[in-house]
Design brief:
The protein is of the alpha+beta class. Helices cover 29% and strands 15% of the residues. The protein contains eight helices and eight strands. Helix 4 runs antiparallel to helix 5. The N and C termini lie far apart (65 Å).
Length: 248
Amino acid sequence: MAATGRKHLVRDFNHFITCYLCRGYLIKPTTVTECLHTFCKSCIVQHFEESNDCPKCGIQVHETNPLEMLRLDNTLEEIIFKLVPGLREKEEQQELEFWKKNQPKANGQAESLRCQRLGLPDVGGGDDGDAGGDDGEDDGDEDYHRSDPQIAICLDCLRNTGQSGESTVTDLMKRFIRCSSRVTVGTIKKFLSLKLKLPSSYELDVLCNGEIMGRDHTLEFIYMTRWRLHGENTYPMVLEYRPRIDFG
């Protein structure tokens, strides 16, 4: 006799889809990469204004800037919206009402931009219906900066390798840089070649803790799997470069 499957209620999953800080459903679920605990984005950002430790397990997330170690979990957000009927619409409506009350109107465009971002119909058009009269003047107000998580690294020249091209590869004038954590080793090599004025055919090795890094490795991957695992390592992460050694 076949056993009938038990129907699960939403409350059966509350432990996995609620925020430890506010006890509500996770809104814009954001994960701490150091310990993989997840909170509402607004909750964990507010918490990190007062502390650098995870509020659930107490681990130090980052010595100076814990916000760098946060990642949005869009997959979990979609799961929660599918599990909890009406939650998406409720949150979008609350966000729309918040911006209508708190964001000053700039030529009638504030609500229009907010509605467009939420995928809702425009509720605050201008009196005459023309939205393009001041386009040229407002272009300067747009933010073109990337919103990627940032990471600071130090690029050191690895010497005494016994390679013939060692004299060509020198120290950078500015060794410390800040860039997206999604930058790959291949991009770092291009950056080094440009700054050191190396020929396009010249090959470099980039190393972390003495291990050669693959050109498709991202800085975030290297930090999480190579640099962070060594307890004595400090911030920023140090990458070394040298002329490529052909082991073939």
